[in-house]
Amino acid sequence: MFRLVLFGVLVSVPGGFCFSPNCVRENQFKFYGFPVEGCSKFLQQLCMPVYSGQFEVMGSPTIVKVKATTVLPTCAFYNVDTLEHIYGVKSKIKILAKGAFIKLPNLRSIDLSYNMITEVRDKVFQNVSTEKLDLSWNNILFVDPDAFKEVYNLRELDLSRNALMTIPIHQLPKSITTLNLAYNELTRVAINSLKFTNLTNVNLSNNRIQNVAISFFYPLDTFDLSNNELYDIDYVEISSVNTFRIGSNNFRLIPKYLENINANNINIYPNPWSCEVLPDLWRTMSSLNYRIETTGSGTQTMEICTNITTVGTFRQGDKSCVNDRQCPTNQVCKVGQCLDPCSSFCHQTSVCKAKNHQFRCACPKGTKSDPMDLTGSCNKVQCYVSSQCPLGKYCVQNRCKAIAGSTTVGPPSELPNFIPEIEVKPWWFEDIPYESPIKVFKLATLPPIPEFITIDPVILPKIELIGNSTT
């Protein structure tokens, strides 16, 4: 008997283990009064004041406008089946009480922008169906992982212009198509398509993001990472995206996994790109058929690369082309200009062939290019990596040598560097558990190498694999 009584208390007390507000009309009238206006669907310009939850005075209100109030209380809009839009812009709201939105099956939008809300707790939305939820321009610091657990059919979620340092992205409703988290204080984000089914527009611009991992196995429309603090992309794999933006970050070198973005348009400016890597960056993007998206107009001048002695600039607005077809057949269109790919993208020591807006840089016979040299220079060496050697030979000090067939080899100076590996899960592994590669960390200290070493031929493929991974 005592257990039953205790359970009943927990159910009825706000904040109990099983929170279920008692939203009968008497409680709405007695405890939960707050000023709103109710508007009819056919007389939207004619709105009448409604107090203490007595929405029946309007008959069947479809629109509610919240007037100035500090707290949006429990049972505020309980079971108003006809309600389609809740409009609470600039209403001075600070607190969303648990159960403020409960049993609203026909909602289409909730707009609570331009208020002073600081957190979104769980149970604020209970059994609510709405297509759009706007919580932008508040002071939100915290979003409970279960805050939107009982929000159904949500398509647009706007949490921009807040103070979020973290966000439970993978606890958001799977139905979301547009997610706006711009202008917050986020520093690390991992987002995975396994947690969503319809998300196609993601705005993470104007945060403080330094680490990002992205994995989407279906097409996206826009993914915006502009105006952050990125030096590189930790991991990205997107089946296709129309527009991908990384402008106004701290990129100097070519991002890892650039080939995994699969973008139609990519925004890479402005960034402090090194002028030494820019030709290789453009050459890579050209081979991937990425179109460079530029912004600005008129006489604005944009710095496209920097190094100690050189500053390259591009005057926005003075475009001579928008695609390759507007250039001579031996030129390509980049950042609005017709450029000679042989002089712009290929190293002077390489042989360049350009035809029909396509180009290829190749090293002359007897020379090789170092994959780690982003300038693409060609040098008279046999190899830089083992993959440049014939089958059965390995690259040792830029020469292809046959190690297989002999169990004893010469001094350790002629051996490939052998550094043992430790497989460590990267920071995004919990959010992207299936698609992510295992990051390889090198040991800081190595055991001493004997003067001569005997190698079992069985483990030679392991040596070659490690040699390739360091390239």
In CATH, the homologous superfamily of the domain at 21-154 goes by the name Ribonuclease Inhibitor
Spatial separation of the terminal alpha carbons: 72 Å
* CATH C-level class of the domain at 21-154: Alpha Beta
Based on CA atoms alone, the radius of gyration comes out at: 30 Å
Strands, count: 35
The largest β sheet comes out as: 13 strands, mixed
What percentage of amino acids are in beta strands?
25-35%
CATH topology of the domain at 21-154: Leucine-rich repeat, LRR (right-handed beta-alpha superhelix)
Main sheet: strand order: 2-1-3-5-8-11-14-15-17-19-21-22-23
Instruction: Report the uncertain regions.
Output: 1-17, 308-317, 406-423, 434-471
- What is the CATH architecture descriptor of the domain at 21-154? Alpha-Beta Horseshoe
Structural class: mainly beta
Proportion of helical residues: under 10%
Mean pLDDT: 75
Task: Please count the helical segments.
Answer: 5
Instruction: Describe the global form.
Output: elongated
Summarize the helices and strands and which ones pair or pack:
Blueprint: H1 2-12, H2 25-31, E1 36-39, E2 47-50, E3 63-66, E4 71-72, E5 85-87, E6 95-96, E7 101-104, E8 109-111, E9 119-120, E10 125-129, E11 132-134, E12 142-143, E13 151-152, E14 156-158, E15 178-180, E16 188-192, E17 201-203, E18 211-216, E19 220-224, E20 235-238, E21 241-245, E22 263-267, H3 278-287, E23 291-292, E24 301-306, E25 311-315, E26 332-334, E27 337-339, H4 341-344, E28 351-355, E29 358-362, E30 368-369, E31 378-379, E32 393-396, E33 399-402, E34 421-424, E35 439-442, H5 460-469
Parallel strand pairs: 3-5, 4-6, 5-8, 7-10, 8-11, 9-12, 10-13, 11-14, 14-15, 15-17, 16-18, 17-19, 18-20, 19-21, 21-22, 22-23
Antiparallel strand pairs: 1-2, 1-3, 24-25, 26-27, 28-29, 30-31, 32-33, 34-35
